[in-house]
């Protein structure tokens, strides 16, 4: 990623730890049980859904329930390879289709 904000390493570590805990929680299991990607709404097996931070941790996002959504592998890898602006465009296209 090439858009680092100045997020302290300690905060990143703490939020990644919280994300790990969140992944084990009943709340998360309920989220992925529906087998639906938050972004493209594609139905995928729960075990193929990944926990995605809507606002990435490196951009100051937190591992809160409001910031963590289930995403399919395709959306997840797109989100990581696209620039934030390109990702916005991708979401817009999804919304229109
Ligand atoms: Zn998706």
UniProtKB/TrEMBL annotation:
<feature type="domain" description="HNH nuclease">
    <location>
        <begin position="26"/>
        <end position="77"/>
    </location>
</feature>
<keyword id="KW-0540">Nuclease</keyword>
<dbReference type="InterPro" id="IPR029471">
    <property type="entry name" value="HNH_5"/>
</dbReference>
<dbReference type="Pfam" id="PF14279">
    <property type="entry name" value="HNH_5"/>
</dbReference>
<dbReference type="InterPro" id="IPR003615">
    <property type="entry name" value="HNH_nuc"/>
</dbReference>
<dbReference type="GO" id="GO:0004519">
    <property type="term" value="F:endonuclease activity"/>
</dbReference>
<keyword id="KW-0378">Hydrolase</keyword>
<keyword id="KW-0255">Endonuclease</keyword>
<dbReference type="InterPro" id="IPR052892">
    <property type="entry name" value="NA-targeting_endonuclease"/>
</dbReference>
<protein>
    <submittedName>
        <fullName>HNH endonuclease</fullName>
    </submittedName>
</protein>
